[in-house]
Design goal:
The structure is a single chain. With 205 residues, this protein is mainly α. The protein has two domains: 97 residues, no CATH class; 80 residues, no CATH class. The chain contains ten helices and no strands. It starts with a helix and ends with a helix.
Length: 205
C-alpha cells in the first residue's frame, strides 16, 4: 500500500502534464488580453480616420500598421511583467521607442508626412480628448457639445498644457492652465458648458 506522502505527490509525468495545461491556459488568456487591448486602442482612432478621409483600402492599411504597433507594445509589457521588469527599464523603453520609430517610418512611406503628422498630433492630444469626453458626457442631456465645440476644446486644452520639470507634456490633470482654458473657451462655450468644464477638471484633481 502506498503511503499518504506518496499519494500527495503526483508522478513526474502528471506534474509535467499539469504544467503544460497551465501554460496553455496562460497563453490563451494572454492572447485574449492582447486582442482586447488592440480592439480597445484601435476604437480610439475612429476620430482620426474621419479626419483623414482615407479610402477604404488605405484605412485598412493604416489600421494594420496601428494594430502591429499596439501588439508590439502589449508584447513588451508582457515581457516586462514576466521578467519582473518595469516599463521604464532601459531595454524595454528602448524597444518601445523603436516600435514607435518603425511605425513612423512605415506610415510616412505609405501615406506621406502629412498623414503621419496628423497621427502624431492625434496621439499627443489623446488625454485632452479624454477630458473633453468627460465634459461631453456631463452635458449630454442638458447642453450637449457639438463636434466643432469638442474639437476646439481639445485644441485649447492641448495648447494650455503645462510641461513637467523635464519639459515633457503629461496626462496629469493638474498640468493644465485651467484659467487660460476657460478664458479662451468663452468664445465658443456657453456659461453652462464652461461650468461643466471647470467642475470636471476640478473633480479630476
Amino acid at each position: 500500500m502506498a503511503s499518504a506522502g506518496a499519494d500527495a505527490t503526483p508522478p513526474p509525468a502528471a506534474a509535467a502534464e499539469l504544467d503544460e495545461v497551465t501554460q496553455e491556459r496562460l497563453k490563451k488568456n494572454t492572447a485574449e488580453q492582447r486582442l482586447t487591448e488592440i480592439t480597445h486602442v484601435l476604437s480610439q482612432y475612429d476620430g482620426l480616420f474621419k479626419t483623414l478621409g482615407l479610402s477604404a483600402a488605405a484605412e485598412t492599411d493604416l489600421k494594420t500598421l496601428l494594430i502591429d504597433n499596439v501588439g508590439r507594445h502589449f508584447d513588451l509589457g508582457t515581457i516586462a511583467r514576466t521578467q519582473g521588469l518595469k516599463p521604464v527599464d532601459p531595454d524595454i523603453a528602448a524597444l518601445s521607442v523603436q516600435a514607435d520609430a518603425d511605425l513612423a517610418t512605415k506610415v510616412r512611406a505609405a501615406f506621406g508626412d502629412s498623414v503621419y503628422q496628423t497621427l502624431q498630433h492625434y496621439d499627443q492630444t489623446a488625454p485632452m480628448r479624454e477630458l473633453t469626453g468627460h465634459v461631453a458626457a456631463v452635458l449630454a442631456t442638458t447642453s450637449p457639445l457639438t463636434s466643432d465645440q469638442a474639437n476646439q476644446l481639445v485644441e485649447i486644452l492641448n495648447s494650455n498644457r503645462i510641461p513637467d520639470a523635464q519639459g515633457h507634456l503629461t496626462s496629469d490633470p493638474h498640468a493644465i492652465n485651467l484659467d487660460a482654458v476657460l478664458t479662451q473657451a468663452q468664445t465658443f462655450l456657453s456659461p453652462a458648458q464652461l461650468t461643466a468644464l471647470r467642475q470636471v477638471q476640478e473633480d479630476r484633481r
